[in-house]
Amino acid sequence: MFGRKNEAPTAQETVDQAAAAAQTSSARTAAGKGVPTPKRRDQVAARQRPLVPTDRKAAKNASREAMREERLKTRAALDTGDERYLPLRDKGPQRRFIRDVVDSRWNLGEFVMIAALVFVVVSFIQNLTVQSIVMLAFWVLILAVILDSFILRAIIRRRLTEKFGSPNSGDVWYGVSRALQLRRFRLPKPQVKRGEKPA
């Protein structure tokens, strides 16, 4: 009275619906390339891996060999400066630039270890005058190294700001600590000569 009830579908509509369903089914089969969908338990079983390797000895040997190859690559990178295999603390263009700045200049900190060795040797000499002179020279060198470190700190900070912007935390100390090492024993090895301008 207030509206018409839903009428039953005609025979033509039923035929059209069946044809559409058959077309959808054929499209799904084509998309799946005719292969039935695998069961869930088969998919889960294919993804599962044992937590413990079946052959522990072979897994241990493979892991040891992989670690050995990684160490060799890191060692070679410390000699050549290859960024891909350097330790994390040495990676990045900023750290490389800092190393070049330090390695391109003479640093008084390089001579601290040599002076300390001389001081130890001279301490066995039973001559108060010689000991006093060597000790005085040693402390003068220490003060000069501290002053040189402050100068180097300012140079690194200024050069980093000019090239990369504000330096990151630890960058300046990274350069100063490198300057306190003998050039021959620095790692990664220097890639610039003394007096050479860093790129």
TrEMBL record:
The chain crosses the membrane at residues 106-126, 132-156. Residues 17-31 have a biased composition (Low complexity). Residues 1-71 are annotated as: Disordered. Pfam families: DUF3043 (PF11241). Residues 54-71 have a biased composition (Basic and acidic residues). It comes from the Bacteria. The keyword rRNA-binding does not apply. Keywords: Membrane, Transmembrane, Transmembrane helix. The keyword Cell cycle does not apply. This is DUF3043 domain-containing protein. It comes from Arthrobacter sunyaminii.
